[in-house]
Write a structure and sequence with these properties.
alpha/beta, Aspartate Aminotransferase, domain 2, 2 domains, three-stranded antiparallel beta sheet, 13 helices, globular
Length: 388
């Protein structure tokens, strides 16, 4: 069967409720950070199951990671352990602060930093670790947190893929780490277009993030402009940033959050369909969560194995020729010119991540897909791999 329509790698699912809420914000006259951002933050903490958690909305997960590390006092001379198998944002925020990222290899099954590679990278300069929950599967957080506490190292979870991921019965965002940072980029499990959320149980760290996300000013504009008494006075207490989430974005997030359980159930169904349909092919399939945990299924990464008789790059080209969009997650940082050249990184130093990169391809997986769309992906893989 020949399909005329291209099936993209990802599309967001935006409903009429989100659209109506955005229109309401536009009509209200309050389009920057205000009452809807506040409501979204409160609802996010409640979604995680702990209204005492501090949720701070920001304009991206990248800015959230930056705020978290800044609040922890990371600076020049400090080292921060990060996986090489991640998007550049995980490491670039370390450089924003003048600190040094220390790159480690990942586990061949989960694509995640292991507790062992983390421990091996620790020096007397190590001040933080940023485990990345790749594709939505949690890292070995019990052991990572235990090692971090042993050496007085802060833990900042890069949870850009991990909403709503369960780790041993607990949602990511509620573990005993210093911060968890979520992404609401357009292709994530829920979206605000651009945006993110910083979550911490520590009130002093939360306060620092709140101040620094808006120029280091002691009071949010919303507080000053909605007061029924003269409230023009403010103080700049630190050289902050411009990282606040506007109400227009929060308007989308309020309703996306309500739909997140449905989105997650759909993604789990889709992941099971792929596993059942692709298990006999020369592909390495992603791990499912175990031991009271659950996978968010932000991505469905497969590996094109050598017995497929086709390279990963050839696979992507052939899929595109058949009208299927795929992607690669990720080109590891040790292969990126800036990181490679600045820190003298080599492919041989990261053998697991390097092999994963050469084989990995992410298949389309998003909630607007139909079962027919998924079947089309499977049928196309059969054709491309000549497995029919």
């Amino acid at each position: 069967m020949k399909y005329s329509k291209f099936l993209p790698f990802s599309l967001p699912e935006i409903g009429e409720e989100e659209i109506a809420e955005v229109v309401d914000s536009l009509r209200s006259g309050w389009v920057t950070t205000g009452p809807k951002a506040r409501a979204f933050e409160k609802q996010f903490s409640e979604f995680l199951g702990d209204s005492l958690l501090h949720s701070i909305s920001v304009n991206s997960a990248t800015s959230g990671l930056h705020l978290a590390l800044e609040a922890l006092g990371i600076g020049i001379g400090d080292e921060v352990v990060v996986p090489t198998y991640t998007f550049t944002a995980t490491a670039e925020v370390v450089r924003y602060l003048g600190a040094t990222p220390v790159f480690v290899d990942v586990d061949s099954q989960t694509y995640n930093m292991s507790a062992e590679t983390f421990r091996a990278a620790i020096t007397d300069k190590t001040k933080a670790v940023v485990p990345v929950h790749f594709a939505g599967l949690a890292c070995d957080m019990d052991n990572i947190i235990s090692i971090a506490r042993e050496f007085n190292i802060a833990v900042v979870e890069d949870a850009a893929h991990a909403l709503p991921t369960l780790y041993k019965g607990k949602l990511i965002g509620t573990l005993d780490s210093d911060f968890s940072v979520f992404s609401f980029y357009a292709n994530k499990t829920m979206t605000t277009g651009e945006g993110g959320m910083v979550v911490t149980a520590n009130p002093s760290l939360a306060k620092r993030c709140q101040i620094m996300r808006l120029h280091g000013i002691s009071r949010d504009a919303f507080d000053r402009y909605t007061s029924d008494k003269p409230a023009w006075f403010y103080e700049v207490v630190a050289p902050g940033f411009k990282y606040n989430m506007p109400d227009i974005a929060a308007s989308i997030g309020i309703h996306q959050l309500k739909r997140l359980p449905m989105f997650h159930a759909k993604r789990e169904e889709m992941a099971k369909f792929y596993r059942e349909s692709l298990s006999k092919f020369p592909l390495g399939l992603p791990e499912f969560a175990k031991d009271g945990s659950s996978h968010a299924w932000h991505l469905y990464p497969v590996r094109v194995l050598s017995e497929a008789g086709i390279t990963r790059d050839e696979f992507i080209i052939r899929m595109a020729e058949e009208g299927i969009g795929c992607s690669v997650h990720f080109i590891p940082l040790h292969r990126q010119p800036y990181w490679r050249d600045t820190f003298s990184l080599s492919n041989e130093t990261f053998p697991v991540a390097d092999k994963l990169f050469l084989e990995e391809v992410s298949l389309p997986l998003y909630t607007k897909m139909t079962i027919q769309d998924q079947q089309r992906v499977v049928d196309t893989i059969v054709k491309v791999l000549n497995c029919g």
